UniProtKB/TrEMBL annotation:
It comes from Vogesella alkaliphila. The lineage of its organism: Bacteria, Pseudomonadati, Pseudomonadota, Betaproteobacteria, Neisseriales. It catalyses: [GlcNAc-(1->4)-Mur2Ac(oyl-L-Ala-gamma-D-Glu-L-Lys-D-Ala-D-Ala)](n)-di-trans,octa-cis-undecaprenyl diphosphate + beta-D-GlcNAc-(1->4)-Mur2Ac(oyl-L-Ala-gamma-D-Glu-L-Lys-D-Ala-D-Ala)-di-trans,octa-cis-undecaprenyl diphosphate = [GlcNAc-(1->4)-Mur2Ac(oyl-L-Ala-gamma-D-Glu-L-Lys-D-Ala-D-Ala)](n+1)-di-trans,octa-cis-undecaprenyl diphosphate + di-trans,octa-cis-undecaprenyl diphosphate + H(+); Preferential cleavage: (Ac)2-L-Lys-D-Ala-|-D-Ala. Also transpeptidation of peptidyl-alanyl moieties that are N-acyl substituents of D-alanine. This is Penicillin-binding protein 1A. Pathway: Cell wall biogenesis; peptidoglycan biosynthesis. Gene3D superfamilies: Biosynthetic peptidoglycan transglycosylase-like, DD-peptidase/beta-lactamase superfamily.
């Protein structure tokens, strides 16, 4: 009886087995032809983000929904491959795409448990799922995944499959692929990771959200330990490597820094330009954009602008903490977690890191910093914020427990600082072709993405005067023209408003003064008289040669004092005309665009001075103005720049009405740089708001680095210039256009008579007169000046 039962049972099992196999074969025959084409694998085109680089190939920006960086499998370190195989599929190079034992084990486990919680997927099966299938845990999906894995194995080589896996798998932090993950988590390429870091990444594919070292460092360490143990058991690493990796502390890249080089404003300019050209494809096609930015110059500009703005702000009162977190309602066990969450929501700003105050007294402040570090601040580190430690100030202004403040550490010393409310801009460019070498559009891009270099239209103040002086040279004036620096009153109809009684910034008047000295001392009344003489309409038309638009420069006498509007970039382009010998070059920031394979797609062909750029002004005019602007540095309002110890620097300070804008624009024959300081909502900068005190130090700081090791460039006068030895300030040579120099006595622009529309002009009898130029010096070829 028993043999018959066993025989029947065996027959039933055999029959069922044959039936199952038959059904499986039928399912395979029906399903296999319907599987998706593998073209997406054989012609793999991942969504690679737009990447922006400096001219010296430093990454400054990355834009795209997915962080990707395609890496050929041959460029992946062997230990990285072994770490992944240890964690995901140790028999990858032996099986045919399906680990049958693992699949059966997972199936049995799912049947017993009644849930589909285990899949035993090989790397090939994961590739099939990532490219073609959903993540639902069903038998149908698993069956299709197995068939696709079989198809993939018969179409691609093992290395090709592994390459797809390494570049496609999602690993958290918006990172797809191990190369992108290495940058996202550790800020370094795969080739530079340690064994411990490779093991950390290798543990992510199983569950990126659960084993993310940024979000769950403890879980991530446990998963890392498992991967390291498997690597050791498979003899991929030695016992010494295993122990060293187990003990290596976790060092993650700063999560709130997109790039080590602070060039976010430039990167955003590129993003906008690329979207304008390629629309949404800009973020997925893997374009590589190389800018004209020099990484060294960019860092110098960033540091100089921030130092200048912080220096200005340090002269203002401490405004109090940025915010507060109420720790009194938090259990002691949860305090550290609350502090970490609070700081995670606050971004670093350069070297100004946020901290939460744990305790505060007039003599010491204890601060909790990111990463669980506690810092004690005493002595001079409290000096700036000492007023906020007093019980007399309001709770909102007081530094107390729970206050979020800013800290700067310098070596072993730490100080309380604050984020400046004042803003600034800095741009430097090559005057020969307009290539921008550095650009910083504000104090902190994360605080405000408004680009003050390109978007801020502000009054340029006295930095605009050289363009008016250039117009005067075009009409026959020379640096030796004598002009009366005396008070004047202008009727409303002349300036399109109410009566105007302009004054010099220092309230002093020099009487008859040469045009050269007037520019060096930035005499407002002289600039106005010059514009009166040449005419506001001519002046407005003339300055368009430098790139200024007539709508922003009204044809009123206030133009002489820079009452129009211009951006720092427009000012840089204008000063480049003086620096390059009179040519109009346009600023540009994109050098070239390449595709993901490095093929050149587009390149900027700039207008180059002396080659294909338009001649904006007479080269002699440019030379003379540049020479006059050297005296602004040597003897005038920009005298601080002599600290650079150079003889080829020209420049002009600028301060607008009520100290709302502070400027300095300066150049050498090889580099033009402009800096601006002011508030977004225009208001007075106060007594520290002069161009020479707020803006010039920033420019000097930058140039001290940019010109280090660069020899002085002394350009010879262009043809058609007459040199008068010792006729300029302090016995320096004077320069004239040959057609505007004579031998008869010099004429001068004085203030006698009546200017149409300006009323009577009363001379200042008490103002000291400038010493008259010797007979025989240059004489102005100008008509009756109506004074």
């Amino acid at each position: 009886m028993l043999p018959r039962i066993l025989s029947v049972t065996a027959g039933i099992i055999a029959g069922l087995t044959i039936l199952v196999l038959g059904l499986a074969v039928i399912a395979i025959l029906v399903t296999y032809p319907r599987l998706p084409s593998l073209d997406v694998l054989t012609d793999y085109r991942p969504k690679i983000p737009l990447r922006v680089y400096t001219q010296d190939k430093v990454l400054i920006g990355e834009f795209g929904e997915e962080r990707r960086s395609f890496t050929k499998i041959g460029d992946v370190p062997q230990l990285m491959k072994q770490a992944v195989l240890s964690a995901e599929d140790e028999r990858f190079y032996q099986h045919g795409g399906i680990d049958y034992i693992g699949v059966m084990r997972a199936a049995v486990g799912n049947i017993v448990s009644g849930r589909t919680h285990s899949g035993a997927s090989t790397i090939t099966m994961q590739v099939a799922k990532n490219f073609f299938l959903s993540s639902e845990k069903t038998f149908t999906r698993k069956f299709n995944e197995a068939l696709l894995a079989f198809k993939i194995e018969h179409t691609l080589s093992k290395d090709q499959i592994l390459e797809l896996y390494f570049n496609q798998i999602y690993l958290g932090q918006r990172a797809y692929g191990f190369s992108a993950a290495a940058q996202a988590y550790f800020g370094r390429p795969l080739q530079n990771l340690s064994v411990a870091e490779m093991a950390m990444l290798a543990g992510l594919p199983k569950a990126p959200s659960s084993y993310n070292p940024v979000v769950n460092p403890e879980r991530a360490k446990l998963r890392q330990a498992y991967v390291l143990r498997r690597m050791h058991e498979l003899r991929y690493i030695t016992a010494e490597q295993y122990q060293a990796a187990r003990n290596e502390p976790l060092r993650l890249a700063a999560a709130n820094q997109d790039s080590s080089l602070p060039a976010q404003y430039v990167a955003e300019m590129v993003r906008q330009a690329m979207y304008e050209r390629y629309k949404d494809g800009a973020y997925t096609e893997g374009f590589r954009v190389f800018t004209t930015i020099d990484s060294r110059h960019q860092q110098w500009a960033f540091d100089a602008l921030r130092a200048g703005l912080m220096d200005y702000d340090s002269r203002q009162p401490y405004r109090g903490p940025e915010s507060f977190v109420d720790l009194s309602k938090v259990d002691d066990a949860d305090v550290e977690e609350t502090l970490d969450e609070t700081l995670a929501a606050v971004r670093d700003s350069g070297n100004m890191q946020p901290g939460v105050v744990l305790s505060a007294s007039p003599s010491a402040v204890s601060v909790y910093l990111r990463g669980g570090r506690t810092l004690q601040i005493r002595g001079r580190g409290l000096a700036f914020a000492r007023s906020a430690l007093s019980e007399r100030v309001t709770p909102v202004q007081r530094i107390r427990r729970g206050a979020v403040i800013r800290i700067v550490e310098q070596g072993t010393h730490a100080s309380i600082v604050q984020m400046p409310t004042v803003e600034g801009a800095f741009v430097a460019m090559d005057p020969a072709n307009g290539a921008i070498r550095s650009l910083v559009g504000g104090f902190d891009f994360n605080r405000s993405s408004f680009n003050h270099v390109t978007q801020a239209m502000r009054q340029p103040g006295s930095t605009f005067k050289p363009f008016v002086y250039s117009a005067a040279l075009d009409r026959g004036f020379t640096p030796s023209t004598m002009i009366n620096d005396a008070p004047i009153s202008v009727d409303p109809q002349t300036i399109g408003g109410q009566r105007w009684d302009p004054k010099n910034d220092d309230g002093k008047y020099a009487g008859m003064i040469t045009m050269r000295r007037a520019l060096a001392l930035s005499k407002n009344l002289v600039s106005i008289r010059i514009l009166m003489s040449i005419g506001t309409d001519f002046g407005q038309q003339y300055v368009q040669r430098f790139g200024f638009e007539s709508k922003n420069i009204p044809a009123y006498l206030t133009m002489a004092l820079g009452a129009g509007q211009a951006s720092p970039l427009q000012m840089a382009e204008g000063y480049a005309v003086f620096a390059n010998g009179g040519y109009r070059t346009r600023a540009y920031f994109i050098d070239r665009i390449e595709d993901v394979g490095g093929r050149l797609l587009a390149r900027t062909e700039p207008a180059v001075a002396g080659r294909n750029a338009a001649q904006a002004i007479d080269p002699r005019n440019a030379y003379i103005i540049s020479n006059m602007l050297k005296d602004v540095v040597r003897y005038g309002t920009a005298n601080r720049a002599t600290a650079l110890g150079r003889g080829d620097i020209s420049g002009k300070t600028g301060t607008t009405n009520n100290f709302r804008d502070a400027w300095f624009a300066g150049f050498t024959p090889s580099l033009v740089a402009v800096t601006w300081v002011g508030f977004d909502q225009p208001r007075s900068l106060g007594r520290y708001g002069y161009g020479g005190t707020a803006a010039l130090p920033i420019w000097i700081n930058y140039m001290n680095n940019a010109l280090k090791g660069v020899p002085d460039i002394e350009l010879p006068p262009p043809p058609g210039i007459v040199v008068r030895p010792g006729a300029a300030l302090r016995g320096n040579d004077e320069y004239y256009m040959e057609e505007f120099q004579r031998t008869n006595p010099q004429l001068s622009i004085n203030n006698r008579g009546t200017v149409p529309g300006s009323g009577n002009v009363t001379p200042d009898e008490t103002a000291p007169a400038e010493e008259a130029a010797p007979a025989g010096d240059a004489v102005e070829n100008v008509k009756e000046l109506l004074f």
